[in-house]
Amino acid sequence: MTDSEFNEKYKKYLEHNHYGLSIGNEEFTNWLDEKFQVFITYPNFSYSQIKAKFNIGRFYCKGLSNEEITEVENKITYLLT
């Protein structure tokens, strides 16, 4: 799955005027797709950006625990090393 396909699939949860996933790694995108199957069941879940910034994973969202956000960010960072 590409970033564009992912963002299209989850556009209902993508915050207005944000670009969403921007990693360009199919392995990560498929992993994240599985995570999102759980995340979208949470009330008030939304996301705005999923990216690498200064070689560190960043996941900007609402409605998740700090542990869940950290797991996604750590996965991005791991893929960059």
Provide structural commentary:
The protein is an alpha+beta fold and 81 residues long. The protein has one domain (3-80). 44% of the residues lie in helices and 21% in strands. The chain has three helices and three strands; from the N terminus they run αβαββα. The protein has helices spanning 3-9, 26-39, 66-80, and strands at residues 20-21, 46-53, 56-62. A three-stranded mixed β-sheet has the order 1-2-3. β2 and β3 form a beta hairpin. The chain is globular, with a radius of gyration of 11 Å. The protein starts with a helix and ends with a helix. The model has no long low-confidence stretch (mean pLDDT 95).
Could you write a compact summary of the structure shown?
With 81 residues, the protein is an alpha+beta fold. It has one domain (3-80). 44% of the residues lie in helices and 21% in strands.
What descriptors fit this protein?
3 helices, 3 strands, alpha+beta, three-stranded mixed beta sheet, 81 residues, 44% helix
Apparent shape = globular
Percent helix range: 40-55%
* Discrete helix count: 3
Main β sheet profile = 3 strands, mixed
Could you give the order of the helices and strands?
HEHEEH
Mean pLDDT across every amino acid position:
95
Strand content: 15-25%
Our Rg estimate from Cα atoms comes to 11 Å
Structural class: alpha+beta
Number of strands: 3
What's the number of domains? 1
Reading side by side through the largest sheet, how are the strands ordered?
1-2-3
State the end-to-end distance.
Answer: 22 Å
Poorly predicted segments = none
